Amino acid sequence: MKPRILEAARALKKAHHAVAVTGAGASVESGIPDFRSPNGIWETYPPDRYATIEAFLDDPDRVWQMWFDLGAMLGDVLPNPGHHALAELEAMGHLHAIITQNIDNLHQAAGNRRVIEYHGNARRMRCLDCDAGTALDLARHTGSAPHCVACGGIMKPDVVLFGEIIPELAMTESELLVRRCDFVLIVGTSATVYPAAGIPATAKQHGAFVVECNVEETDFTCSITDIFIQGKCGETLPLLAQAMREL
Q1: Tens digit of pLDDT for each residue in 108-138?
Q2: What is the pLDDT of residue 146?
Q3: Nearest to 64 by CA among 138, 121, 120
Q4: Residue 73: is it exposed, middle or buried by C-beta count within 10 angstroms (0-12/13-18/19+)?
Q5: Domain that holds residue 206
Q6: How buried is residue 16: exposed, middle or buried, by Cβ count under 10 Å (0-12/13-18/19+)?
Q7: CATH code at position 62
């Protein structure tokens, strides 16, 4: 067992209120490309044309093409060992909640019960007029924006587009968690997208111990991280869960 993983496990063992903050790196091993990499989603679908609320309101049919494609991509993916390790940590009583920037629903599929979706969920859609929500049904793909069965309004993917604010409930719950927690596990995310990038720093300011699991160093590493564990989440997190079982 790597010394840093053992050290992180000992710190987690002592924690009373641990929270994980996850990003795209937690899901790439499930086959989901991230948005910003050279082969990421933004390369095929430029965000100014497909991911802003202005673009959606201007041409919802065009924007829905990306979300139907993304929905089809998510349809076959499964949680990877990193997701399952986080679910195990929660089941063991060591992880209180997950705050995720991901929109893929894989934490819930792995078995995590308390997941705060900071940017929404791509498997759902919501009516712009009456706010009715429903699952994204790919079988209803007609080449244009779906309409609400309740009122006929245009349905929007239940995700936060550029130009929209983070859902109030997610913001409030996340704020309460990070102000209370004494341990933060950063998984597969870098300090680039705000306001989500500010969550670990806020926890650190309130005294939390910070463990970071990433394939490479980030702005977190030299500023707030107490223990940096380098490697793929699907490899490092199962080792952390194993260490917790053996302590």
Answers
A1: 999 999 999 999 999 899 999 999 999 988 7
A2: 93
A3: 138
A4: middle
A5: 1-32+79-119+166-247
A6: exposed
A7: 3.30.1600.10
Sign of CA dihedral 186, 124, 70, 45: negative
CA torsion angle 192 194 200 201 (round to 10): 90
Residues 46 and 134 in one domain: yes
- Shared domain for 28 and 1, answered yes or no, is yes
Tell me, yes or no, whether 245 and 140 share the same domain: no
> Which of 135, 159, 183 lies at the terminal end of a domain, its last residue?
159
User: pLDDT tens, 2-60?
Assistant: 899 999 999 999 999 999 999 999 999 998 876 666 667 788 889 999 999 999 999 99
- Residue among 119, 141, 147, 206 flagged as catalytic: 119
Q: Is 107 a catalytic residue?
A: no
> Side chain identity at 116, as an amino acid letter?
I
List Cβ<8 Å contacts ≥24 apart for 59-63: 60/145, 60/154, 60/156, 61/143, 61/144, 61/145, 63/145
Do 71 and 175 fall within a single domain? Answer: no
Residue 15 sits in the same domain as residue 66? no
Average pLDDT estimate for 77-92? 97
What is the per-residue pLDDT for 44?
84
Share of residues in the chain with pLDDT > 70 (%) = 96
